[in-house]
Design a protein that fits this description.
Layout (H helix, E strand, L loop, with lengths): L5 H11 L3 E5 L3 H14 L3 E6 H7 L1 H14 L4 E8 L2 H9 L4 E4 L6 H15 L5 E6 L3 E4 L2 E3 L9 H11 L3 E4 L4 E2 L10 H10 L4 E3 L7 H9 L2 E6 L1 H17 L6 H23 L6
Parallel strand pairs: 1-2, 1-11, 2-3, 3-4, 4-5, 5-8, 6-9, 8-10, 10-11
Antiparallel strand pairs: 6-7
Helix pairs in contact: 2-4, 2-11, 3-4, 5-6, 6-7, 7-8, 10-11
Length: about 280
């Protein structure tokens, strides 16, 4: 089937009290792994491309691979820009067939974030493209974007309400204690803050930096209103570990298929596990 808008998936997830997995891709094998996992679990899924992925693989390759995968798949798939930081980049993705975009204006002052978000919404919503924004700063590193723990600010419930009223954005990424990249310890999420945001905001809420967050914490976040969960680091870990295992077993191996095949299988397995945790199995 053709690519779908992310907002369609999130609306159903919010009504059904489950979350849609949003999985980052960097190459063909990871796109294949995401789709294979979604089909095995009969689950809707979001394939995401970050600025780093677009720079590495090329936007035409990412869109062509994902569109082909969606056309061949029996589950709904959205193609989403993860952490777009400029209007120009958002429009590049819109022109290349993305069905959803994120404009990350969280480093700006509140009113500037609102203005940038509204500029994006005005440009892409008539095209049927959904828009995610971010309020508060999520710590860690996501490709070229780094937020130190000192800078990481949790989302204020009152500001979230004001932001959504001012923009009517389709999805809102909030900061409640997660971080991009690998955790040094066990993350502690501010569930009371999440509940207060949910009480003020009916817009679908997004949890970034979810790799390494314990299963019970993810389930709790979903029960309190999160309906899109981003996973990147866990996929990279599984993918690279499997490829490394092949090389450690035979240092003279030169066939990339012998490395990338097992890596793809490992990525598929971790994505299937996340889909089951999110409660979206059987929701396609």
């Amino acid at each position: 089937m053709a690519l779908v808008s992310m907002v369609e998936l999130l609306d159903q997830a919010q009504k059904g009290h489950y979350a849609i997995g949003a999985f980052n891709c960097n190459n063909m094998e990871i796109v294949q792994a995401i789709v294979a996992a979604a089909e095995a679990e009969n689950a809707p899924v979001i394939i995401q491309a970050s600025q780093g992925a677009i720079k590495y693989a090329g936007i035409e390759y990412i869109t062509t691979l994902t569109k082909l995968a969606a056309e061949k798949a029996n589950v709904p798939i959205a193609l989403h820009l993860d952490h777009g930081t400029s209007f120009a980049q958002v429009m590049q993705c819109a022109r290349n067939g993305f069905s959803s975009v994120m404009i990350d204006g969280s480093k700006h002052l509140l009113e500037d974030n609102i203005a940038l978000t509204n500029k994006v919404i005005e440009a892409v919503r008539p095209l049927g493209i959904s828009v995610e924004a971010e309020l508060g700063k999520i710590g860690g590193t996501e490709d070229d974007i780094t937020v130190s723990e000192r800078e990481a600010l949790f989302t204020e419930p009152a500001e979230a309400e004001y932001f959504v009223q001012a923009t009517q954005v389709d999805a809102l990424a909030i900061a409640i204690g997660t971080a991009h990249g690998q955790y040094k310890g066990i993350p502690k999420l501010d569930f009371e803050r999440l509940t207060k945001i949910r009480e003020r905001v009916s817009t679908p809420l997004v949890l970034h930096g979810s790799s390494g967050v314990p299963e019970e914490a993810l389930r709790e976040a979903i029960s309190r209103g999160i309906c899109k969960i981003n996973i990147d680091t866990n996929i990279r870990e599984a993918f690279v570990l499997a490829a490394r295992h092949v090389l450690e077993g035979d240092s003279k191996e030169i066939d990339p298929r012998k490395m990338l095949g097992p890596a793809r299988e490992a990525a598929t397995a971790i994505i299937r596990e996340k889909i089951r945790i999110f409660g979206s199995t059987g929701k396609a």
